[in-house]
Design a protein that fits this description.
two-stranded antiparallel sheet, 10-stranded antiparallel sheet, metalloendopeptidase activity, 3 domains, Dup_hybrid_motif, Glucose Permease (Domain IIA)
Length: about 325
């Protein structure tokens, strides 16, 4: 295509003359064009940089999303493990150490203390320092708790070796065969009395079962009572020593005799409905130093953790007792 030629009308010569641009004007025109292109390029790049992600940025965002997801999963697992360790601590202090008459582990001993130690300083330069420090701190706390728990179990193992006789004497099984847990009718605590219909403290647990079902001694001991009484009907009491005693009520027939030594799991009588009872069952109590305690804490020879949790749920229902 031929280059367009521009003309202008010269009023002096009264002729059309060809427009001739000077070098300066040509230079200004070129510079103006370049400036326009530069401004347009800068605007385009700025918009693209702020709105559109580069492939590298897209990959970084995917990586961050994956890291956040993995951190959330790790956080939940650490929380679950912390719950398990806390449950072990509760059992350690409130069951096992009670059995061995040992001092409970104090909260200061359980508490993680890293004061004054710059153990997380190296993590501060990380791009994900807050996540890394928080996760590391929680792992340190969990490790400390597990270490203390491990040392506690080492101590309990030594106590076991020294107290075999005591362990055989402590009530540690259910008085009625109850593997399916369907025979637990009422637990420890305030319940509605079935006869008087008033709210009354129920100092034991009721196990419903057909009349004649065997009732077992829950630990080694000596029978100190085996007779009929107004409240519990045919009743057996066993002194296990070490501050423990147990009561078994409403039997249809008593097998144990006063003064006899019995072993854990030995039959001492049979389920019945004697005394102040509204149906065949065994009323069972555990006493520690003369005071009733919740029998739910003394089935560790009988129940798995899952069965224990189910028994705990059943025993805590605010229902009516059988006596």
């Amino acid at each position: 295509m031929a280059k367009k030629v521009k003309y202008f009308y010269n009023s002096s010569t009264l002729k059309y003359e060809k427009v001739e641009l000077s070098f300066g004007k040509k230079l200004l025109r070129v510079l103006g064009y370049l400036a326009t292109v530069s401004v347009f390029s800068v605007v385009t790049v700025t918009i693209a940089y702020n709105i559109l992600d580069s492939p590298k940025e897209k990959k970084l965002k995917r990586d961050i999303s994956q890291l956040s997801l993995q951190y959330d999963i790790l956080h939940k697992r650490m929380k679950q493990l912390d719950g398990v360790v806390t449950d072990l601590q509760e059992r350690d202090n409130n069951i096992y150490r009670v059995i061995f008459e040992s001092e409970p582990i104090t909260s200061d001993e359980w508490q993680t203390n890293f004061a004054g130690i710059k153990r997380y300083k190296a993590l501060e330069s990380s791009n994900y320092s807050s996540l890394m420090i928080e996760a590391t701190r929680k792992l340190d706390e969990l490790s400390k708790k597990m270490y203390v728990q491990s040392k506690s179990y080492d101590y309990l193992i030594r106590e076991v070796r020294n107290k075999d006789k005591m362990l055989a004497s402590v009530p540690a099984i259910q008085p009625v065969s109850n593997k399916d847990l369907t025979r637990m009718a009422s637990g420890y605590g305030y319940r509605i009395h079935p006869i008087y219909k008033t709210r009354k403290f129920h100092a034991g647990m009721d196990f419903t079962s057909p009349t004649g079902t065997p009732i077992y001694s829950t630990g080694d001991g000596v029978v100190i009572k085996a007779e009929f009484g107004r409240g519990f009907g045919n009743e057996v009491q066993i002194n296990h020593g070490y501050g423990y005693s147990t009561i078994y009520g409403h039997m249809s027939r008593i097998k144990a005799k006063i003064g006899h030594k019995v072993k854990r799991g030995e039959i001492i009588g049979y389920v019945g409905n004697t005394g102040a009872s509204t149906g065949p069952h065994c009323h069972y109590e555990v006493h520690r130093n003369g005071q009733p305690v919740n029998p739910i804490n003394f089935y560790f020879n009988d129940l798995s953790p899952a069965e224990y949790d189910k028994m705990l749920e059943l025993s805590s229902r605010n229902n009516q007792s059988f006596d």
